[in-house]
Write the structure tokens for this entry.
Amino acid sequence: MKKIFFIVYFFLLALCTNAHVGSPGVTYEGNAGPYKILVNITPPDVIPGTASVTVYLEGITKDVNVSARSVYWFFGDEGSPRADEALAVAGEPGRYDANVWLMSSGSASIQVIISGPQGEGTITIPVIAVSTAQRDMPPGTGWGLFILAVFLVVLMITIVGSSVSDGLLKPGEMLSEKLYRKRYVGASVALVILVLTLWGGKTWWDSWAARYQRFMFHPLTANTSIEQTERGEIIRLSIDTTQLNKILSIRRNYIFRKMEYLIPDHGKLMHLFLVKAREMNVFAHLHPVRKDSVTFEAMLPPLPNGKYWVYADITRLSSFSETITDTIEISERNSFISTAARNVSMDGDDTYLITNSIKQTTVSDQGVPVLMCGKPGIRIPLQDGTTAIWEQDPTEPLMAGKLIHMRFSILEPDGSPSTLQPYLGMMGHAVIVKDDGSVYIHLHPTGNYSMGSQRALLERFAFDKSLEEYLPPPQVFMDSIDHFIARLETMPVEKRDSLLMIGMNHTVDSTHAAHSVTFPYAFPEPGNYRIWIQMKRNNEILNSAFDAQVN
Ligand SMILES: [Cu+2]
């Protein structure tokens, strides 16, 4: 039983996560008013709990005060507690640590406030506050409490027994047969009452444990399928409505996780990633279109047969973002390079990449030319003649839990630095998946928080009205978002990108600006990972992949 519990426990730890899978840390790099900061947040896995917040402040170490607080989407700016001061870490100038309480579940944010010589700067970083783990009682504590309980029960029985027998005796008197019996009866009655009390206590405890289970974060589940049509193959993701309704039956979840309240992130309602299971030699980034509130469809590119891991990112008006996971088997096709498949009219922002498998270094996949994956410090040729490099010292091991900057650069065929363009409103996108599929994260040069969530939070804070007034009717909201996205799709790419980049707070590293992109990230655990980098050059999406061995 215990073993099963432990397996379930680890399973929950691995899967019950949001807008990522198995990578709960949140990073932010950019500006807080006039200050340049890097923030790393480790949210608690049990609510209420504390988020550990580390702030790295660039350049200034004197006369500066760094503080942090939690601000909930539900309660807004004014309903939130005062900020706690982050303490300077001895020996690490510019680093400030704070522990911030997250008291209730839902869409939250950590607000970092810097006041110093250049005035005050504030930044709001979205964090989803959900319980994803259930703690086991430490065996030592359990046994200690058990022994104490037995001692108290025995003591109570003795006291009650004595109070109705020995306690009634005058000095020098002996215990009569009648009193002896009374002591026995008294002790028995006390035992019965105590057992009933303990049983009541256990029922109360169990009901709270069940309540906790109910309020724990349960990820949405979906069924992914493929349908052959005249236009080509369609990949369809349908959210499991039975499970969705169960989640929405909890009132607060209803507000946070209702499917009608999806908002676009990078101009798309859903970012769906397909990664070929285990081998990881195929990667696709698609943008399914909403058919109804729980069904999403995209044209499937000509991917090789096999089992794929599915990760679908969504964000809501409540700033609640999450990743829906599933697996799908792509098979029973004549040939994935058939002309019919090649002519699939994909969304212009959809793309896929075939590389060598993570386990082997051969470069052939059913006769299709494939790309080799890079490694730290090794330059790799890309499809368009450019080369890509992960500018990471290969002699320096990558460590789990350590915040690093991963810098990827593109050079022109003649060796000169490339000029990159924004792709979906960002200079670069990275997707990192562990070789067993248990870790998935989508990140950007500004960190791995959801930008759609950040926008939703700021909008909510700015709108100083009650939630009833704020939330539009579900269907009305859904229609207006669909309308907005349809308009985005018809815009010229440049216009759309400049629109998507508004308020992105994009930090461009001046020394490596145009040809390289830097991602702040801390690998959550040791293992083998593959990193896909998506950039844009000459109006074409430029994909590359790199392998990372993390100690
Ligand atoms: Cu992205």
User: Anything to note?
Assistant: Confidence is low (pLDDT under 50) at residues 1-18, 334-343, 505-512.
